[in-house]
Amino acid sequence: MNAIGMYQRRDVIDTHQKALGVNLDPRRYGTFAEIGAGQEVVRWFFRVGGGAGTIAKSISAYDMQVSDAIYGRASRYVCRERLQAMLDYEHRLNLDRLREVRGDTTAFFAFADTVSARNFKGTNECHGWMGIKFQAHPRDDDSQIIIHVRMLDGEAALQQEALGIVGVNLIHGALMLNHEPELLVDSLLDGLTTSRIEIDMIEFSGIAFRHVDNRLMSLKLVELGLSGAAMFAADGTVLQPSEFFYRKAILVERGSFRPICNVNLDMLRCAHEKFSQLPEVAGKEIVQVMEITMNNLKATGEIDMRDFLARADVIAACGMPVLISDYFRYFRLAAYLSRYTKENIAITMGAASLIDLFDEKYYTGLEGGVLESFGRLFKNDLRLYCYPLLNTDTGELTTCDNLPVTPELSKLYGYLLDRGVINALDNYDPNCLTVFSREVLRRISDGDSSWESMVPPSVAEVIKSKCYFGYLPQ
Predict the structure, then answer these.
(1) Which of 8, 122, 242, 290 fits a 20 to 30 Å CA distance from 249?
(2) Which domain of life is it from (predicted)?
(3) Digit-coded pLDDT (tens) for 221-235
């Protein structure tokens, strides 16, 4: 069953009912610790009645010195490190104080958030970390859910209201839906819209979620529209974009990666060499990311989860982080990345993708058409790096110099070349030009072992060990 189908059939419970349902569950008892934006979450549990059966303690360590004295010093106050310290401290305190007295009948929890809501001048980034550490059953080992939210309302009071609702959704989901994590994710924005709150990171851990693959949960965030993008590292660890990209130059390669081939890595190598030589980039840290769009994942209709994990695993075999995005248009990807860094951004692509970029049919929905698209794409000095395309029948190379562009757009293309925002990759490995993923897939399905020379050895090993992409052991 796909997540969208479950969303249509799931009974949506309002915030009042969720908070009351938790309060009336005699097993649940815990602490609420909230920093920034007031105590908006615990307020719900006080307001609906029955809170004495649920709330062991409510605390707002708003002063920085007080917060440090309780939870220890942190590099920043609105960060994952501080949230984890709050969860660990408060949950441990509950267990130490109450486990012997009522541990046989009580499943303890600690909810925490640390938030930067809109300040008086309206100049700050409005975001926050929120989480719950809990026992699914009395005497159970701990489980945990952490999320990162971006608050999009223009007024502090509205942001506080939205935070309260998300917090209730998270607590209710953790305590009542922990056995169905996809439904839990689906419920996080009940009573809200994505115009008010975006959840761009979620991580499940602990015994209740021992079978949960956080990569699939990251995909679910984007599939359900809770976020425009989500990330995870090569080891499957969930990444929070604003922390991963913070103050770093960024190089992205978009592709299907079915599977990742030698040409994909050569394209990234070539672009990195060129990008790192720019005076404004030289000597700075560059993070490299492989991006897969939802449009690509849904190319055949519904998302095939095994196919998605196959792509994730072969990218991981190359040690690369993965960005899943719902940004089919490149200018939307550029705008997304520009949120998180003031450093330079570059995208590398093959000549075929660059040809598509100049196809006006993709911009019919924009009032300014292709001109608006390119204006938004290149407004922050973003650079494109183009890898040549070999015609295996004629031996002809398509490069930036002979890219087939319609006469109407030829002058625009020439202008972008002259400005240096579109750049040719002439430092390629000729042996990689004959490698195409569709040919690799064909050889895998045909049992032709020559495909192994067309992908990195680590990728070949993953494909064979897990029988991905139709591979059958010989």
Answers:
(1) 122
(2) Bacteria
(3) 999 999 999 999 999
Task: Give dist(CA 181, CA 298) in Å, integer.
Answer: 22
Residue 120: its pLDDT value, please?
Answer: 74
| Distance, CA of 301 to chain centre | 22
Quick one: 248 and 223 in the same domain?
Answer: no
How many angstroms separate the Cα of 144 from the Cα of each of 55, 71, 110, 131, 258?
18, 18, 10, 7, 33
pLDDT tens digits along 22-61: 999 999 999 999 998 879 999 999 999 999 999 999 999 8
Q: What's the average model confidence in pLDDT over 443-469?
A: 96
Whether the pLDDT of residue 10 is over 70: the answer is no
Give the Cβ contact number of residue 88 at 10 Å: 17
| Mean pLDDT in residue range 427-443 | 96
Same domain? For 200 and 248 the reply is no
Name the residue range of residue 335's domain.
243-432
Cβ atoms 28, 107 nearer than 8 A: yes
Residues 259 and 192 in one domain: no
Q: Check: CB of residue 141 under 8 Å from CB of residue 134.
A: no
CA quadruple 43, 49, 52, 55: dihedral sign: negative
Same domain (yes/no): 83, 223: yes
Residues above pLDDT 70, as percent of the chain: 98
State the residue for tokens 């569950």: 25
The reply to whether 395 falls in a domain is yes
- 464 in any annotated domain: no
User: How many Å apart are CA 474 and CA 268, to the nearest integer?
Assistant: 33
Residue 229 is encoded by which pair of tokens?
């993008």
Max distance between CA atoms of the chain, in angstroms, equals 81
d(CA 233, CA 314): 12
Alpha carbon distance 313, 235 (integer Å): 9
Which residue(s) pair with 55 in the sheet?
Answer: 30
Cβ 257 vs Cβ 311: under 8 Å = yes
Same domain, 196 and 345: no
**Does one domain contain both 127 and 203?**
yes
